[in-house]
Amino acid sequence: MNVLRIDIDSSTALLSWPDDEPERRLLIQGEVGSPLDTGVYHRQAVMHVHGDGERERLPLNHAAWTLACSWRRLELPYGLYGIIVITGPNLQGLDPALVAEAQAVCGAVADVRALWLDRPPVGEGPARAELLAAARHAMVGLR
User: Fold this and answer.
1) Domain boundaries of the chain, sorted by first residue
2) Quick one: three-class SS letters along the chain?
3) Residues 4-8: what's their mean pLDDT?
């Protein structure tokens, strides 16, 4: 089984998941940093995030925020910062269908952010709306 890492540039990487639970925790902490916190935005997935990412001025993870919003079907009023690791519940591997969803959303976010280089959004609200629309479109394409 694998788990998914989402980097701040919206790229993703599948991580091999160790059999031993303490090794799993060490892998997550090594990728995300500490203190660790978790967020459940989908009942079959857990996002492992840096607990003080905003305070430590880690970069906003647009892709992880957009994915969390898409899974919850609402716009989160807070950001997710730094590298994010997504596992299944209870430190299990992530379902392949959720890996595909996450990768599709992250790809859509990367595409939008590339467009922003030539055409920056007019504000934070329109930027969020554009990311969420791209995510909806990417997820519909999977069904």
Assistant:
1) 2-138
2) CEEEEECCCCCEEEEECCCCHHHHHHHHHHHHCCCEEEEEEECCEEEEEECCCCCCCCCECHHHHHHHHHHHCCCCCCCCECCEEEECHHHCCCCHHHHHHHHHHHHHHHHHHHHCCCCCCCCHHHHHHHHHHHHHHHHHCCC
3) 98
Contact 59, 8 (CB under 8 A): yes
The percent of residues above 70 in pLDDT, for the chain, comes to 99
Structure tokens at 119: 């055409």
Query: What band does 142 get if pLDDT is binned at 50, 70 and 90?
Result: confident
